[in-house]
Fold:
Amino acid sequence: MKAYILSLNSEADLTKQWDFGLLKDLLNGDLWKSPDWVDIEIKSVKKLSKDETAIVAIPARHHTGLESDINKELKKISKVILFLMGDEEADFDITKIKHNNIHIWVQNPHIGKHDKYNKIGTGYPQHIHQYLPKTFEKEYEMFFAGQITHNRRTDMVDGLQKSRIDRQKIIQTEGFTQGLEKDEYYSEMTKARFVPCPSGAVIPDSFRLFESLECMAIPIADKRLPSGDVWEYWDWLFGEIVPFPQLTEWWQIDDLYDNVKSDWQNLLHKQTAWWIQYKRKLAYKLMEQIDA
Structure:
C-alpha cells in the first residue's frame, strides 16, 4: 500500500513539518497494527501515479487555491484516503474536492465546517519520542513553557500566577522553539501532574495537549478561542467524552484543580488507557477505509 505525500507547492514539505508526527506513526504502524494491517510505504511525490487504492496526504495550508489541481491528481487513483494536514486557519476549500470514492481526514478541523469528515488533531511533533525520558517521576503540579502570543495564553499565565496552586513551573519564552531544549522540555513535562494547554492561535487544538498525553501528564484543555467563542471542541474532535479536564476561563483554575488534585493518579490511569485505545482506533479505522 502506498502513502503519497503530495506537494504541488515547491515550498511545502509535509514530511518536515512538526504536525506530521501522529500521522507518520499511524502510517508506519507505530501506533498499532491491527490483525488486518497492511504495510504502508510512504513516498514523497510532486504528482500521483495511477493506482487502485492509495493514501494521499498534503500540507493543505500550502495548497489553498490549488484545489482543482489536487482534484486532477486524485482522479488518477480509484479509491483515495486523503489527509488534509496543517491548515489551522481552514483556508483550504474542502468543498472543491470531488472524487467518486474518497475518505477525507482533516487535521485541525473546525466545528461547523468539517463536521462530516474524519478528524485528526495536531498531534505531537515528529521528534518527541527521541527525547522522552525513561522515568516519569512527578515533581510539579503544573508545568508550562511556551510563547505568550495571544490573549488565551496571557489569561492562562495570569490565572496561574494568581492561583493557590503550589509547585508550579511556568517559563515564558519570546517565540516558538526559543525556550528549553527539546530533551529538557519533555523531561520537565513528564515531571508534571498537570499541563495547562491554552488555545492555539485560531482553534483550541495545540501540540501541547498531545505532548502531555504522550508524557503521561494530564492536560487542562481550553474551550475558549482567542476570538472569544467557546467550543465544545475536544469531545467533538475525539468523537467521545474525553477524560481530561477542560475550562473556559483561566481564573477558574483553582476550582478545577481542587476538583481533580486528590484523584489525579486515577485520572491519569484512565487517561492513559483511553489514549492508548484512541491510537489503536485510528489504526483500525484506517484499515477499514482501505478495505471498504
The chain has two domains: 2-121, 128-275. Residues 264-291 form the longest helix (28 residues). The longest strand covers residues 51-59.
